[in-house]
Write a structure and sequence with these properties.
By secondary structure, the protein is α/β, with parallel strands linked by helices. It contains 10 helices and 11 strands. It has a 6-stranded parallel beta sheet with strand order 3-2-1-4-5-6. A 3-stranded antiparallel beta sheet has the order 9-10-11. A two-stranded antiparallel sheet has the order 7-8. The termini are far apart. The protein binds ligand NAX. One of its GO terms (biological process) is malate metabolic process. GO terms for molecular function: L-malate dehydrogenase (NAD+) activity.
Length: 319
């Protein structure tokens, strides 16, 4: 049996975590031979609700779950963790400007970046789910000078899977038959799902007028119907993102990672790219796709948005 590893999850009493924690504890994220100790971070006012979630975790009697830490203290939350899933974030409330949302979250993620730097395992892999995810990842990584920027990423796997599902339904083929599709840019309505390398025969008009906007706006559509934002599907994507990052993947997946300059993106911005995961946190960007002018134009818009977000959070970027 392997030694247990410590996994931190923030926003642990929230709705995404309510789907996520049980699946991590069952072994779906790191494998059925990997025991885990969960470190759950919450705001002080949500610790009672978190206690209830932990009672339910206990009631599942998961053989792989070797301990649970519940805390609102950053040092305790990140002590010796090898994986961190930063889910908790300040939601946008009525009348709040986008700039305020960016700055409020920048404060949360700069503090969490510092705490990860000081307390987490030096090889810790950190996934940012809380929005604005790409810029939050940039802020956390910038405040963690002793950790590699490549060990931070932001989640665009849900967008990736939404795109696969749309294509599968349109062409009546299995999702597993669709390869070489990727999300480029920001996890926002400017993201660009690129189908040009899939080898599928698609009507260009459908792709531009229906597919791309459907993927870009799917999150808002879910809210319209469900009354609250995607939770189980977001948890599923977080799990798959971490699984592939830690253990490797056969297929190309989408992850927002620090740009190495590929596809003319300014270095260091956290941008979604087609990525191959090799296991143990190693990945390479697939950097040889020939994108057409339409795609390049769309991706540039999304990158411009990321640059504007970076400007808006200014001084909270340490390095
Ligand atoms: P909830 O509001 O249900 O839960 C968030 C939890 O985080 C709350 O319990 C809150 O007390 C806690 N929290 C807030 N600030 C915290 C802090 N500084 N430290 C620790 N805990 C803190 O939101 P939920 O639906 O779970 O969504 C969480 C985040 O995921 C949101 O920012 C949301 O926008 C984002 N999403 C990102 C997606 C992606 O694809 N990257 C998709 C789904 C989701 O929209």
């Amino acid at each position: 049996r392997k030694k247990p590893v410590r996994v931190a999850v923030t926003g642990a009493a929230g709705q995404i975590s309510y789907s996520l924690l049980f699946r991590i504890a069952s072994g779906e994220m790191l494998g059925e031979d990997q025991p885990v100790i969960l470190h759950l971070l919450e705001q002080p006012e949500a610790l009672k609700a978190l206690e209830g979630v932990v009672m339910e975790l206990e009631d599942c009697a998961f053989p792989l779950l070797r301990g649970v830490v519940q805390t609102s203290d950053l040092a305790e939350a990140f002590k010796s963790v090898k994986y961190a899933l930063l889910v908790g974030a300040k939601p946008r409330t009525k009348g709040m400007e986008r700039g305020d949302l960016l700055r409020d979250n920048a404060k949360i993620f700069s503090a969490q970046g510092k705490a990860l730097n000081d307390h987490a395992d030096k090889s810790c892999l950190t996934l940012v789910v809380g929005n604005p995810a790409n810029t939050n990842a940039l802020i956390a990584a910038s405040n963690a000078p002793d950790l590699a920027p490549e060990n931070f990423s932001a989640m665009t796997r849900l967008d990736h899977n939404r795109a696969l599902s749309q294509l599968s339904a349109k062409l009546s083929i299995g999702v597993e038959e669709i390869k070489n599709m990727a999300i480029f840019g920001n996890h926002s309505a400017t993201q660009y799902p690129d189908v040009s390398q899939t080898g599928l025969t698609l009507d260009d008009q459908w792709t531009k007028a229906t597919f791309v906007p459907n993927v870009q706006n799917r999150g808002a559509e879910i809210i319209k119907f469900r009354g609250s934002s995607s939770a189980a599907s977001a948890a599923d994507s977080a799990l798959k993102h971490m699984h592939d990052w830690a253990l490797g993947s056969e297929e190309i997946v989408s992850m927002a990672i620090p740009s190495d300059g590929s596809y003319n993106v300014a270095k260091g911005l956290y941008v979604s790219y087609p990525v191959k995961c090799h296991g143990q946190g190693k990945y390479t960007v697939v950097d040889d796709w020939k994108l057409n002018d339409y795609a390049k134009q769309k991706i540039d818009l999304s990158i411009k948005e990321l640059q504007d977000e970076k400007k808006a959070v200014g001084e909270l970027l340490k390095s």
